[in-house]
Task: structure prediction
Amino acid sequence: MKNANIFVDVDLTLVDSNGRLLDGAGDALRRLRASGSHLFLWSSVGADYARQVAGLHGLTDLFEGFSAKPDIVIDDMPSTARPAFEYNVHEEASWPALAEKILTKHIDAR
Result:
């Protein structure tokens, strides 16, 4: 899958409970972006908050869009609205390890 659309949550995924960027997250996102992937940042707090957090960490340019977490999705094929792959950053060894897994398993960047 080339040019994957990757949606990243803000709180406790990109940043910790104190708003600090999780170790390796910035570099991992840069690798994914460099592969041709399209990155989007979302938050249950809203799009403006997602954009603000990205800006605080110098990551705004990595993301093509910012959005609120969807509560309801309307689609002619609802089963396609669910992502094909989901990852929990806390179940991986690190953000860089997660980026490597995504690049290796899903993106033809090699």
Summary: The CA atoms of residues 8 and 32 lie 12 Å apart. The mean pLDDT is 93. The chain has one domain: 5-106.
